Amino acid sequence: MTWTRAPQRPLYSIALGSLLALAIATVPAYAEATPSPTAEVAVHCPRNVTALPKTGALAHAKQAALEAAPHIYRGLNVSERKVVNAYIVRKGTLRSDEAGQCGLYGRTILVEMRFPHELPSASLSQSAVYVSRIKPPGKPSKYTVWAVEH
User: Fold this and answer.
1) Residue 39 DSSP symbol
2) Torsion angle, CA of 32/35/39/40, rounded to 10 degrees?
3) Bridge partners, 127 (sequence order)
4) The pTM is what?
5) Pairwise CA distance, residues 150 & 21, whole Å
6) Is residue 130 situated within a structural domain?
7) What pLDDT, in 10s, does the model give residues 106-135?
8) Distance CA 28, CA 140 (A)
9) Based on the structure, what is the number of domains in the chain?
10) 37-50 pLDDT, tens per residue?
C-alpha cells in the first residue's frame, strides 16, 4: 500500500482563515437586519390627505413638527428645539422624494428643525419631517407628521 501525503497549507492561510471565522462569529446579530445604504426604504404614505389652505399652512405645520419632536426623537434633548425652515414640497424641491412617491406634491410641507442641545453633532442636532393636513374619517383635519426625512 502506498501512502500519499496531502498537500500542506501554508501557515498564513490557516491564520487568515481563523481570523475570518472569528470576525464572522463576532458580528452582532442585529447586523443581519440592518439595510445596506443602497437599499430602498419603503415609504408609508398617509391616507386622507387634504389640500393645504392658501394661508396659514406653514405656521400650522411648524407647530405640528415642534409638538411631535419629543415623541419622534426620543433619547435626544429637544427641549429648546426651533424651526429653521419650512416649505411646501413640490416636484424638484430639495428633499421631495418621499412626498413624490406618495403623490403628495403641493400637499406636504417639509419642516426643518434644530436641536441646540445636541451640538456639536451636526447629524443629531438637525431634523427634517414631512407634515400634511390629514382628515381621518369622521374627525376634523389636523396637521400631522407622517414621515421623518432626517
Assistant:
1) S
2) 120
3) 113
4) 0.70
5) 36
6) yes
7) 999 999 999 999 989 989 999 999 999 999
8) 46
9) 1
10) 333 445 689 999 99
